[in-house]
Every structure is written in C-alpha cells, then in structure tokens.
Design brief:
disordered C terminus, 317 residues, Endonuclease III, domain 1
Length: 317
C-alpha cells in the first residue's frame, strides 16, 4: 500500500512493519519520562503541543506498541469500525467471529447476504439492524464509486475521501477517521470519548471544544514535532493485542504515530481515566495540572522511586 500525503519528508519509512517501526522510531527517550524545560514565553498552543508529546512518550514508555487494529484485512477494519459504534470491543469480536465462521467477512459476501441473515450475525454488537443496513450501504457506495475496489477508494486524497465517507449513513468523524487511518494508512488522528475525557481533565480543551479542533490540536503536536521529540530509549512491551496482519502493515511514520497514540489513549482511558478516575498508578498522573494553574503549567511527570534512588546516589558522589 502506498504512503499517502507524506512524500519524501522525515515522516516516511519504507520496508518496516508497523511494530518494528514503532520500536525503532521511539528509541532515544529515557525510560523515566522527565519534564522538559519550557520557555515561559511559549504560546498556549506551543505548550499544549509539548504536553501532548510528553503524554505520548510517557504512555509509550509504559506500554509500548499496542498492535491496533486487530484485523487481518482492510475490509475487516471497516466492518469493525461500524460495529464498534456504541458498544465495547468484546461485543465487536463476537460479531466478527460470527461473520468469519460463516465466511461472510468479505465485500462479496456482504453484497450477497440477505439483510436478515446479516442482522443475526452482527447481533452481538448491538443496534444490529442499523449496523447491518450501514454495512450494506457501504458496499453499495464502494461498488458505485469505486467498482468494489478498496485500492481505488484508498488511493483518493485524504480530504476528498473523508468527505465522501462522512456523507454515508452511519459514518461520523470517528468512524471515518478509523477507516482512513487503520484501513487506508491515511495520516489522520482518531478522536474518541477517551481522548476528550483525558484532555478535558488535563485542561487542554474545554467541554465545547469540537471534534475537529481536538483532531487539529493532536495532529499539529505530532506532525510538527522535531525528529527527536517523539523518541524514547526503552519502550514498554505490554501490548493489549497480539500482532495481526493489519497492525503490522507497512505505514508512514506519521500514520504510525497517530496509530500508536490513539491506541495508547484508549488503553489509559479504559484502565485509569474512567468515568470515575483511578489516578493512582496512571502514566499520566504526574501531568495533571495544579488547581488554578490550568493547562498552561508545563507538564511535570512523577519521577519513579528507581529514578529518585539513582539521583540520590549520583548526588552523594
């Protein structure tokens, strides 16, 4: 698959799988995330960008590559993006398993299956009638616009294809961006409920901040980062999912960063930043702003006991 929108810039690497590239790209940052000194004259947006990059580094240092999206084909990613709406991933896995068991996880199969049968297969994901109709609608769109070819569809410019996807019934920004990033290697960041919750609690955004504003904020922080700003010496090795064909596909460097950052946000959101937060032990706990300081306070992560012990030994010498 061709890299889209990257050209010959530093955001391009050829010949490495997603997992190998993640470990290689993030290879020079200390194993204990230490706050960088920020110029007090920096703008609000510059501080937000620096904080977001520090979040990414802290999460990657803790857990490493997450091997997301767990799928074998691009079409499976698309189906999963529809089915995950308003439900958790475990229910999606049950519906995907049903489709695989009946050999219905292909464009041709979804085109030909009767809608009633499709509804029964995707029932575990909830809202099964809506989702079955929407899957049928996507295949109709693919047939009409691109003669049933995902290659042709994903070869379109990101902005144009995103507009086409958003025009389809049942596709909102999160679903469209999931399809673009995870299915088509288009460099877009996926914003979900966890992203909004975490950034609100860290005072980087407000409740009224729109999806597009959040996406632009994260994309700016990552795409404009200096080469060394997104690297660590020792990445974590605690993936939530086994390596799959799609999670290990060749990607542009920028798409891989968006992939990993989103997956790590989902991890920290589901384990720590829940509706009732569990801050103790969270990799982002030390980044929480002090009362009254808002998001303009430079992020200062908590230093581990091991690091403190090393500092004491160094000081004594």
């Amino acid at each position: 698959m061709k890299n889209r929108g990257i050209g010959k810039s530093r955001h391009r690497e050829i010949g490495k799988t997603g997992l190998a590239r993640s470990l290689d790209l993030i290879s020079r940052f200390p194993d204990v995330p230490i706050s960088r000194s920020l110029d007090p004259r920096m703008s609000r947006s510059a501080i937000h960008s620096e904080n977001l990059r520090n979040y990414y580094l802290a999460l990657f240092t803790r857990w490493g590559p997450q091997c997301w999206w767990p799928a074998q084909t691009r079409f499976e990613v698309i189906v999963g993006a529809y089915l995950t709406q308003n439900t958790n991933w475990s229910n999606v896995e049950k519906a995907i398993a049903n489709l695989k068991r009946q050999r219905m996880l292909s464009i041709k199969a979804i085109r030909e299956i009767h809608i009633w049968n499709l509804e029964e297969l995707v029932r575990p994901s909830g809202y099964f009638r809506q989702k079955a109709r929407r899957l049928k609608g996507f295949v109709e769109f693919l047939d009409k616009q691109y003669s049933g070819s995902l290659d042709r569809m994903f070869a379109q410019p990101t902005t144009a294809l995103r507009a086409e996807l958003l025009a389809l019934n049942g596709i909102g920004p999160e679903t469209a961006d999931s399809i673009l990033l995870y299915g088509g290697n288009h460099p877009v960041f996926v914003v979900d409920a966890y992203t909004r919750r975490i950034l609100e609690r860290h005072r980087l955004i407000k409740k009224k901040t729109t999806y597009e504003e959040i996406r632009a904020l994260v994309e700016s922080a990552v795409s404009n980062a200096p080469p060394a700003a997104l690297t660590v010496i020792q990445a974590g090795k605690d993936s939530r999912h086994p390596v799959s064909r799609m999670s290990s596909m060749e990607r542009s460097e920028l798409s891989q960063h968006y992939n990993e950052f989103h997956a790590l946000i989902v991890r920290v959101g589901s384990e720590y930043c829940r509706s009732k937060p569990r801050c103790e032990g969270c990799p982002l706990q030390g980044f929480l702003p002090e009362k009254g300081m808002g998001a303009l306070r430079p992020a200062t992560p908590v230093v581990s006991k091991r690091a403190k012990a090393k500092n004491k030994i160094t000081a004594s010498k």
